[in-house]
Amino acid sequence: MSRIIAGAAGGNPLKSVPGDATRPTTDRVKEALFSRLESWDIISGARVLDLFAGSGALGLETASRGARQVTLVEKAPKAVAVCQQNAALVNKVLKNETVNVHRGSVDSVLDLYFDESTGQPRKTFDVIFMDPPYPLTEAELETTLAKAARILAEDATLVIERSSRSPEPSWPASIELIASKKYGETQLWFAEPVQAD
């Protein structure tokens, strides 16, 4: 049973997506991940995008810990339903519509946030989580990563969670790897926008 670890909604259980199409982030990995993000002081007041959200656990954790706005992106109908139930629970605890769920493919949602005609983002995010399904190819991940990089705020952090057997992602020129950590079967990569000199 997954749960919210800390913050206003800490201790509340989260519904899990039935079946084995999604793999929830373990509490151990989640605690380590959020310990690092909190030490960087980037969650409070953040605009958060949780891509390939599954049950929405990562985005919901940020909402509980003070994120200003959280969008969960998921396309699988069962996962969307679970995201909506979990978001409703956290919003109720927070007495605010902090979390919203966007049903659709990750790439199509990322395209919505970027204006191709001006080359500018329509909206930017301070934290983006990407926990892609294992079948996603490296080329597909590279495309999605390039789209996500375009909508990162200036001091944003992008976190990728993958199998520890997966190769390091190919980073677009606009973002750089700042840290990585392996936890058993899980590997986390942390990246941020390249700062202009």
3D architecture notes:
With about 200 residues, the protein is of the alpha/beta class. It is built from five helices and nine strands; from the N terminus they run H-E-H-E-H-E-H-E-E-E-H-E-E-E. It has a single domain, classed as Vaccinia Virus protein VP39 (Rossmann fold), CATH 3.40.50. Helix 2 runs parallel beside helix 3 and helix 4 (about 105-110) runs parallel beside helix 5 (about 140-150). A seven-stranded mixed β-sheet has the order 3-2-1-6-7-9-8, covered by helices on one side.
Entry keywords:
7-stranded mixed β-sheet; 197 residues; Rossmann fold; 29% helix; globular
Q: Examine the coordinates and then state which fold CATH places here, giving the name of the CATH topology.
A: Rossmann fold
Fraction in helix: 25-40%
Strand order of the largest sheet: 3-2-1-6-7-9-8
What number of domains? 1
State the major sheet.
7 strands, mixed
Residue fraction in strands: 25-35%
CATH class: Alpha Beta
In angstroms, what separates the terminal alpha carbons?
Answer: 46 Å
Shape: globular
CATH superfamily: Vaccinia Virus protein VP39
- The beta-strand count equals 9
Radius of gyration: 16 Å
CATH architecture: 3-Layer(aba) Sandwich
What is the ordering of alpha helices and beta strands?
HEHEHEHEEEHEEE
Output mean pLDDT.
91
- DSSP summary: helix tally: 5
Any low-confidence stretches, pLDDT <50, length ≥5?
none
Helix-strand makeup class = alpha/beta
Keywords: Methyltransferase, Transferase
Protein name: Methyltransferase
GO molecular function: methyltransferase activity; nucleic acid binding
